[in-house]
């Protein structure tokens, strides 16, 4: 009886340890995929449909806030529709494994064009910086974990991971766009 309780307790502690370490392992796997510029490995840890949806909602909200009360004008409504469509198309193209791969390859191509490679060799470019190196990590709930970094302007960018069973996936990036729109109102 005591052995059964001890085994059950040990199994529960192991499961809790796995759940607690899961988001850190996912962040590390994302970091490694970015460093290796491996979009296939990156796609294993990112829920691209949810990421696309969340980024699109943020972009549409920003556009609507910037338009403000001018939305009552029929011409402005048409312009807003075109802007939302363009923003959505850009987000749809970038928030895919192929889009991420193209962005990573574009960075390498940009280094080759500008001669910005290592030691003047335009074909050997520096690896992308470790964006999550100085991140502040936090559990918001047992199934939500965030990693917050500051962008070049010092504004917070929050990477949100959700638990899917025993695995964790990145499914939202909270951009500081909304804060910028609120500051301009």
TrEMBL record:
Q: Which InterPro entries match?
A: DUF2939
**Name of the protein described by the UniProt record:** DUF2939 domain-containing protein
